[in-house]
Specification:
The protein has about 325 residues and is an alpha/beta fold. Helix content is about 50%, strand content about 15%. The relative contact order is 0.17.
Length: about 325
Amino acid sequence: MIHKLILISLVSMIGLYAQGNLRIGVLAYGTVNWELDVLKYHGLDKKYGFDLDVVELASKNAQLVSLQSKDVNMIVNDWIWVNTQKAKGKDFSFYPYSKATGTLVVNENSNINTLLDLKGKYLGIAGGVYDKTWLLFRAYSKSKYDIDLKDIVNPLFAQAPILYKKMQDKSLEAAINFWHFNAKLESKNIKPLIEIKDILEELEIQKDVSFVGWTFDTQFANNNKEIINAFLKASKESKEILKNSDEEWIRIKKQMNVKNDKEFESLKNGYKKGIIEEFDENSINDLQKVFKILLKEGGEKFVGDSVFLDNRIFWNFDSK
C-alpha cells in the first residue's frame, strides 16, 4: 500500500513537471537561437515558472510537421501560414517575434539608384514567387511608378545562401534576401536600394509590422495560458537584455558564426532593429492592410483558402 502511494505521488509529480515544460522547435543555425540562449543562460524560464526545452530541427518543413504532430509546442513562423490553417479549420495562434525583414539590396558601386534602374537586369529572390517582400515591392512599384516590377526585371528565384554568394562575388547585381544575409553583406559594399519602412510608408502602412512570430496550437495555449504567457514575458526580457547589453552579444558571438567584426556589428544592429516595442489593435489594423496587398499581388495561390485575415489568430497577451 505504501509503495502504491509512493508510485501515485511520483506519477503526480511527473505530471506536474510535464505541464511546466515548453518545447520549442528551432532551426539549428537560426537567429531565434540567440534569444533562446539568452533566456536559458539567465534562467528566465525558471524565473517565470517553466522549463524550456529547445529542439533543433533540420528545416522549416520539419518545424511545421513537429508542431502539427505535437512533438513541439511552439515554433517561429509567419502569420500567413497561421491564417491559412485557420481557414482550413486548424486552430493555431500567433504572437509577434520580430519585425526584421528582408529587402532589395544592390552593390554600392552599381548605377542602380531606383527600381526603374533594374530594367532588363536579373533580380535574385530568395523566398520564391510568393515571397512576401517580393510581393510588397511589386505593389510599391505599381504605386510609385505605375509599373509592375516583375514586368521590367528578370526574376531569378534561388535559395538564400546562393543569392548571398552571388551578391558577394558580384555575379548578381541585385537581390531580395532575408535580413541576416543582407546584414552580412553590409561590410562588402552591398546596400539596401530601398528600406522596407519606405515601402510600407508608400503603401500607407503606419506601424512596424511583424511577419514572423511565435506560433502554437490554440487549444494547447488555452489549456496552458500561464506557461504561454510566462514564456512571452521571458522572451520580452531576453530581447531587453540583447537590446541593452553589449557584453551579452560578446558572449553569444561565437554561435553567430560571423567572419569579422563588421558582420558581427551588422547582425547585432539588424536584430535590435527587429525588436517589437508594441503590438496592439493598430498593429493588427495595419496587418489587415498588408494582407489585402498580399492577396491582391499573390492571389489565391498565395493565401490558399484564407480570403481575409482572421483577427482571432493573434494571441491576446498582456505583459503587464
